[in-house]
Amino acid sequence: MTHADDTIRVLIPLKVRKKNGRPKILPPADYLPSEDHMQDPHVLRAIGRAWGWRRRMDAGEFATIQELAEAVGLAERHVSRQLRLAYLAPEVLKRLTCGREASAVSLYDACFLAGETWPEQSRRAFENTGS
What we know:
Largest sheet: 2 strands, antiparallel
Helix content: 40-55%
Order of helices and strands: EEHHHHHH
Radius of gyration: 20 Å
């Protein structure tokens, strides 16, 4: 039999936050990710979808974002915002999809980086903002 003094209690300092509307467990602040760190599937899916939409528009399948939005069954505002991900700097896209580092901006904020210069996009997306 086990006695009360035989029990070991392990406390792991984790925080639960919402990311993209889903709960996500965050590691301690001093945690260094291992080599097997995976990319956020929401980011990968959004970038892939944006590039698919861009190709369809470039091929002339749709003349306007409104036509595209109606065809994919999403709000025009959402399609317009996410389509901007296809116009991010090549370095930012590479680091978001292939890199093993976390972005300093959310997926929503990344949609608005396309209007910045390429060096500014990289700086805003990956430099630690101190938060």
